[in-house]
TrEMBL record:
Cited Pfam families: Ccdc124, LSO1_2-like
Coiled-coil segments: none
GO molecular function per UniProt: transcription coactivator activity
Low complexity bias spans: 48-57
GO biological process, one term: transcription by RNA polymerase II
Entry keyword annotation includes Coiled coil: yes
Protein name, UniProt field: DUF1014-domain-containing protein
Gene Ontology CC entries for this record: nucleus
Keywords: Coiled coil
Segments for region (Disordered): 1-78
PANTHER family per record: COILED-COIL DOMAIN-CONTAINING PROTEIN 124
Basic and acidic residues compositional bias, start-end: 1-10, 18-43
Entry keyword Calcium: no
Length: 196
């Protein structure tokens, strides 16, 4: 038999450490409340931050000057306003009536076109479809491509081209510039209809 060597000290130290950890686990018990307590503390901190932010917002709003609240009008009141506005304007066709109604209600949504490029392709296709038979009759010797070029040149100058319509603004126009453009368009409509 081979001679006995000394005991492995590393193994003994590891076993002792493992036994101490197991004893500590048994002392804690089966269920630990540490996670639950940490979650509750996190919720309390979040609630405190939210309350502080709400208080700061309320304080900031109180410091701002108050805005006048818009008056709510019923259908009968609006009808009276529209009737009085239409009475002062001379309206001779449906388009003028729609413009007058726009003036009376103050809803100038359609007077400003921020993105005419979105409507260009469809408007050109409709114009070309309508105009192609007429151009075929006028210029019988031209090829189809040449006819389309002629129609495109006409379309560029046409009122049907969204880029030639009234109220066109740049895509990056600010709200103030849009408001000024809307006011200018409304003033033009009012002057045309005889409101001033």
């Amino acid at each position: 038999m081979p001679p006995k060597r000394g005991e492995n000290t590393k193994k003994i130290a590891g076993n002792a450490k493992k036994a101490a950890e197991e004893a500590e686990e048994w002392d804690k018990g089966v269920k630990s409340n540490a996670k639950k307590e940490a979650a509750e503390a996190k919720k309390r901190n979040a609630a405190a931050k939210k309350a502080a932010a709400a208080a700061a917002l309320a304080e900031e709003e109180a410091a701002l000057p108050s805005k006048p609240k818009p008056m709510k009008t019923g259908p009968a009141e609006r009808t009276g306003v529209i009737d009085s506005a239409l009475g002062s304007l001379s309206v001779s066709n449906v388009d003028d009536a729609l413009d007058a109604l726009t003036l009376a209600t103050g809803a100038g949504k359609n007077t400003i076109d921020k993105h005419p490029e979105r409507r260009l392709k469809a408007a050109h296709a409709a114009y070309e479809e309508r105009r192609l038979p007429e151009v075929r009759e006028e210029h019988k010797g031209l090829r189809r491509g040449s006819m389309k070029q002629l129609i495109w040149k006409e379309f560029k100058k046409s009122e049907e081209n969204p880029f030639n319509r009234v109220g066109k603004v740049r895509y990056n126009t600010t709200k103030d510039e849009i408001a000024l453009a809307k006011k200018a368009e409304m003033d033009k409509i009012e002057a045309r209809l005889g409101g001033k």
